[in-house]
Amino acid sequence: MPYPQELVNEVLEYLDSGHSVREAERRFGVGCESAARWRRLRDGILRASRPHPVKYPQDTVRLALGLAYGGHGFGLDEVAVMVGVSAPTISNWKSWYVEGGHMDIPEIDPGETKHLSPDGRARMTDEELEEYIHKLELKAAVLEGTVKVLKAEGIDDLSNDEKAAIVYALPASFAVTEALPEVGLSSSSYYYCKAKPGRPDRHGRARAAIREEFALARGKRGYRYIRQRLREREDPIVVSGKTVRRLMAEEGRRVSYAKKRRSYSYYAGGISAAPDNLVARDFRAEAPNEKWLTDVTRFSIPAGKVYLSPVIDCFDGMPVAWSIGESPNAELANSMLEEACGQLADGEHPVCHSD
């Protein structure tokens, strides 16, 4: 069903004011695809009626593929101007014929390319030469916009917003239609990015309320509290917790948490470097008082906690000496060692291993 021209004009004015085609669909009751098509048709990106696809001769396909991908030194845009087809068409031919296995890259006789060489451009007609120069000027303008406007190293590293800024900054002599393929941007993405600055912030009211509630909480409450406070306002603002957390981060509202104090620990760390492991997990002994093992063990009894510090002989597994105390301190270990060393005979020097 054809739409009245008055409705089409109203939809286009609504889109130009920064609204999306989805919003236009909900407001005017027209399809989003129709609204997008009307805008492209007005801007010259879409033809009023699509012509039948052109069927190029096989010789043209062979010549274009051979020149572009046969190692003759021609770029895709240059070949497009030479044979009179678009660069995307040649790229599609490569995907269909070469990569699809229907044809190998044709070999072109150097004699066939002599009149197409850079020196042979002088033989172009005025119309062909003017079109070729126009394409080169467009490439130069796009690269200049990339370097000077955005200070970037290349088109591929740019976002869609930056590519749209390049197209918008081009001179008026270049149409949007021909500039978009040069930067690798679709028309829908271009108009979406172009309308961003004028688009209202859907969370503007929530941002203001978050700043207010965060200030009232003196910056000491997190996103869960702020989310609940937004829902309890006279004019409630219902947003998800993730949205509140994201908006708080964008507004720089971060909670400063006090550092958690470490719990008390009686272990203060080693006061010197650990000695070498002389036992090396070999707990066998050939004679008494050759290898000793010691450690401190804690027991819980009705009267409280007690600590046992024994020394065990690896020869027979019997305790040589031990001490018991209410605290695992140096006095507990030293008293046990003094008692054990007091039982050594002359010439006995055991290795005492401990964790």
From TrEMBL:
Gene Ontology terms: biological process: DNA integration
Annotated Integrase catalytic domain residues: 284-355
Family annotation (Pfam families): rve (PF00665)
InterPro entries: Integrase_cat-core, RNaseH-like_sf, Transpos_IS3, Transposase_IS3/IS150/IS904
PANTHER family: TRANSPOSASE INSF FOR INSERTION SEQUENCE IS3B-RELATED, TRANSPOSASE INSO FOR INSERTION SEQUENCE ELEMENT IS911B-RELATED
Record-given protein name: IS3 family transposase
Source organism: Collinsella intestinalis
Organism lineage string: Bacteria, Bacillati, Actinomycetota, Coriobacteriia, Coriobacteriales
